[in-house]
Amino acid sequence: MIRSNGVDLCVQTFGDHAPPAILLIAGGASSMDWWHDEFCERLAAGGRFVIRYDHRDTGQSVAHPTGEPGYDGRDLVEDPVGLLDALEVDRAHIVGMSMGGGIAQQLALAHPDRVATLTLVSTSPAVSSERELAPPSDDLRKRFSQPPPEPDWSDRSAVVDYLVDDARAYAGALTLDEKAMRTLGARVVERTRIVASSMTNHFVAAEGPPVQGRLGDIRASTLVVHGTEDPLFPFEHGEALAAEIPDARLLPLEGVGHEHPPPETWDELVPMLLEHTRTR
């Protein structure tokens, strides 16, 4: 547990506490567990100091009453800065997934001196963009308009079923490993202080003071990683990021949906991340 930005956040590190450091920022309503242990271990084996953490209202970090987050979106942007301070890391390579990718973009604008490089995974422009981008898929929009009933949040088995069903809705053509997903879901539920808050509060929190700047103002070397079958942020969202952030590179993940990179992608993704994060 680390005190960051005025609250207690749960953090785990892999590898030697020495540069270069990689900070992994998970998506909305997602604890650190969604960054698979083996994925973190592979990066650490490549000589990186890997940091992952539970957002507020996820895992073992500070929890608030359901529907009453005691923070806004800007706090979620400042939390990783506090973590780097507490860990005495001057600069880190920031890897953000979905909402975490939005946080990463804002970090690069608000605290450019703390960001060595950016890797934006399955995300969308979080600041001013020059493009109109495609909406979510028809199936996902239907799910938003007619959401499945919430489970009894005190019933762990029902919550795991709910998480597996939700993951299935966002997955691409690569086969969703439901057994592995069920194991992960059970771990997430076991580690979460208030399960209902973890599934709700990020989405009802106020945005907070906006970060000033545009994608074209980002100066950190950027790698955009995007699934070709992402139903939430269609592939052109990744293309927009790569086009508008100066000198950004785009890595398409064939058959991948809106999800933390699945194991089938690691043989390609991990070496590229290690190459991208060579600088200190």
Structure at a glance:
36% of the residues lie in helices and 16% in strands. It is of the alpha/beta class and 280 residues long.
Count of all domains: 1
CA radius of gyration: 17 Å
CATH class: Alpha Beta
CATH topology: Rossmann fold
Give the end-to-end Cα distance, rounded to a whole number of Å: 26 Å
Helices and strands, in order, run as EEEEHEHEHEHHHHHEHEH
- CATH level-4 homologous superfamily: Alpha/Beta hydrolase fold, catalytic domain
* Spatial strand arrangement across the major sheet: 3-5-4-6-7-8-9
**Fraction of residues in β-strands:** 15-25%
The helix fraction, in percent, is: 25-40%
The CATH architecture designation is: 3-Layer(aba) Sandwich
Mean pLDDT: 96
The coarse silhouette is globular
| Number of continuous helical runs | 10
How many β-strand runs? 9
Biggest sheet: strands, sense, closure? Answer: 7 strands, mixed
Structural class: alpha/beta
Low-confidence region ranges: none
What does this structure look like?
- With 280 residues, this protein is of the alpha/beta class.
- It has a single domain (2-276), classed as Rossmann fold (3-Layer(aba) Sandwich), CATH 3.40.50.
- 36% of the residues lie in helices and 16% in strands.
- It is built from ten helices and nine strands.
- It has a seven-stranded mixed sheet with strand order 3-5-4-6-7-8-9, with helices on both faces. Strands 1-2 form a two-stranded antiparallel sheet.
- Strand 1 and strand 2 (7-9) form a beta hairpin.
- Helix 2 (73-86) crosses helix 3 and helix 5 packs across helix 6.
- It is globular and about 45 Å long.
- It starts with a strand and ends with a helix.
- The model has no long low-confidence stretch (mean pLDDT 96).
